[in-house]
Amino acid sequence: MAEAADRDPTPSPAPDPTAGPTPGAEFDPDPEGHKGPLTIYLVKQLELAIRSFMDEALRPYGLTTFQYTALTVLQHRGGLSSAQLARRSFVRPQTMHEIVRSLEERGLIERAHTPGNRRVMEARLTREGEELLAACAPAVQKLEDRLLLDMPEKRRSAFRQGLEDGLASLTGRHHG
């Protein structure tokens, strides 16, 4: 369970480069000689902040960040089993089972047996699920815009590419 401080949507001030290490973060120089928290620590902090703001933005729609993620994965890759959906949503299969059940109960997804394998059920978005994602889009775009607001336009593409490259390095799934 995340600590209350990790869920606090109030942005933290920028770290003081002259201050000592952040609790829980190991310091290591980057290739350009800067000292600061490890990149993986910064990515985790960014993830926690995004999740907190996403949960807040999605609350009026009755969704959590994990539910929204599952719906968007289905929107892009419909016809997935719960296990496939869990892998693509970065959650445990047990967690996805609960997410799928709640989304199905709300009529946002439907499941049917896979042709050729009656033991596997595939989930797909319903029309209601598509409509809810469309309704959420402005709130999610607002958060995306806020994330990039203070980043110069020319650095946004490099930031995104760096995240994609890091993900590809860790997962072996290359984009492009």
Radius of gyration: 19 Å
Order of adjacent strands in the largest pleated sheet: 1-3-2
Largest sheet: 3 strands, antiparallel
Helix fraction by DSSP (H/I, runs of at least 4): 55-70%
The run of helices and strands is HHHEHHEEHH
Number of distinct helices: 7
Query: Judging from the principal axes of the Cα atoms, what is the shape?
Result: globular
| Distance N to C terminus | 35 Å
Count of distinct strands:
3
What's the pLDDT, averaged over the residues? 84
Task: Report low-confidence residues grouped into runs of 5 or more.
Answer: 1-23
The chain-level structural class is: mainly alpha
Strand content: 5-15%
Description:
Helices cover 56% and strands 10% of the residues. The chain is mostly helical. Helix 2 (39-58) crosses helix 6. The two termini are 35 Å apart.
Task: List key phrases describing it.
single chain; 176 residues; mainly alpha; 3-stranded antiparallel sheet; 7 helices; HTH_MarR-typ
Give the gist of this structure.
With 176 residues, the chain is mainly α. It has helices at residues 4-7, 39-58, 65-77, 82-89, 93-105, 127-148, 153-171, and strands at 80-81, 109-114, 117-125. α3 crosses α4.
Layout: helices, strands, pairs:
Layout: H1 4-7, H2 39-58, H3 65-77, E1 80-81, H4 82-89, H5 93-105, E2 109-114, E3 117-125, H6 127-148, H7 153-171
Antiparallel strand pairs: 1-3, 2-3
Helix pairs in contact: 2-6, 3-4, 4-5
